[in-house]
Amino acid sequence: MKKHYLFLCLLFLTSGAYSQLIPYRVHTKWGFADMTGKLVIPARYDNVWRFRGKSAVVKLNKKYGLIDSTGKLLLPVIYDDIDPRELKKKTWYILKTSSKYGLANTAGKLVLPVKYDELSFEMQNSYAMAVARTVFVKVTPDDVVQEGTKSDWQAFEKMGISMIGREPEKDFMMPYTLNNKKGYLVRGRGAKPDSIPAIYDEIDEINIYDNILRVKKDGLWGVIGPRNNIVFPFLYEEMGSASPGMNLYSGKKGGKSGILKPNGEVLVPFEYDRFYFSNDEFWCISYQNGRKGIIILDGNTPVFIPARYKNVSGNPVEIYEYQGRKVRFFEVETEQGYGYVREDGVDYFKDGK
């Protein structure tokens, strides 16, 4: 309670500037609350999505529209779909009705009417193009609509992401087997080629680029370095990589799961059934007694949100800027529907009859 009080005091120190609104569920309907959890836009929609700029997408009776921060409709709830498209310098909403498309900006202004057969986007300079039969138009990041040509259309690149990287150097070269036991050939840094002898039952190479190996000996798992030095003792029935980016490890001991620091110290006690680690890496879903909770791992000490939910989504967290700090929200589900929980454990929904 003291932690929540301090958090709310921080949030109340506002200058009257526009504050971010959070999707908030009341039973089966959705509205928006402010950062203190006060309902600002009544819960009357079947679903809502976070604000982008001055607008948010809402859904009612299988149709979509846009509202502003007061709840006023910017675009009527008449579209088959509204989908945000984020480019490098611009975000638009793609509007769809039947098989026709249009564009709106994040202020809720209609930029292109819903009459075009196709839309295309150029990522780097954040332009959009639309075509309706033989008519081509080009839209600048400032929402200026210009005449386009077929050659412009053909030159446009669809938005995409490419990852290019170099494979890191590693000391471990390749595994070998001798007398039904496993070892590893090693190179460089003063290590001898046979410095990992064939004495292990199993070798897991998942952390090979961190210059460690998870190995199993006499039925228990531990972690060794490239000179066969023991990093984690052989104490664990199971062992996995909890968060590669944070160099954390999960283990199971006495039938219960916990999380370990790189030096082998226990970060999260061994009292959970299991964990699911998100792609965000700084948090995980905890499983306990048939329910799910959240553990946030990137602070000085872990933050535990108790396992009280039917489900916790592994989707990336929603991050809101407020009073110069970032506040994170996680998507959870109860028996009555899904909702959001703030990083300090405050639920942004109400269940009931």
Automatic annotation (TrEMBL):
Signal peptide: 1-19
Superkingdom field: Bacteria
Keywords: Signal
InterPro entries xrefs: WG_beta_rep
Coiled-coil intervals: none
Protein name: WG containing repeat-containing protein
Organism of origin: Chitinophaga niabensis
